[in-house]
Amino acid sequence: MTKSFKKGIYCNYKLIKKVKNNFNEKVIIKTWSRSSTIIPDFIGVTFLVHNGKKHIAVYITENMVGHKLGEFSPTRIFRGHSIQKKDKKNIKK
Asked: What sections of the sequence does the record tag as coiled-coil (predicted)?
């Protein structure tokens, strides 16, 4: 379920402050705020978004505006489906 439109978007004020202070410089901003919405001021900025284990670099483009920062740093890694026991027997022969 999404947030009500009349409440507006959520964006951490510290992120906005950091982007505005370092706008002309190529600075990478480290953040743990995965729930912050990407606003047009963030275009062209690189964020290091925490995924629970490490920080993943996310370069913001126009297509990302309106999405959350956490959508671009996955927290789980899919390593494939496990082989069932009866399939293991067939493979060994």
From this structure: none
Q: Does the pTM of the predicted model rise above 0.70?
A: yes
> How many helical (H) and strand (E) elements, i.e. helices and strands, does the chain have?
2, 3
Domain limits, the chain: 13-72
Measure the CA–CA gap between 32 and 46, rounded to whole angstroms.
Answer: 14
- Specify whether domain 13-72 bears CATH 3.30.420.40: no
**Tokens standing for residue 13:** 């004020």
Nearest residue to 57 (alpha-carbon basis) of 76, 29, 85, 88: 29
Residues 74-83: tens digit of each pLDDT: 999 888 887 7
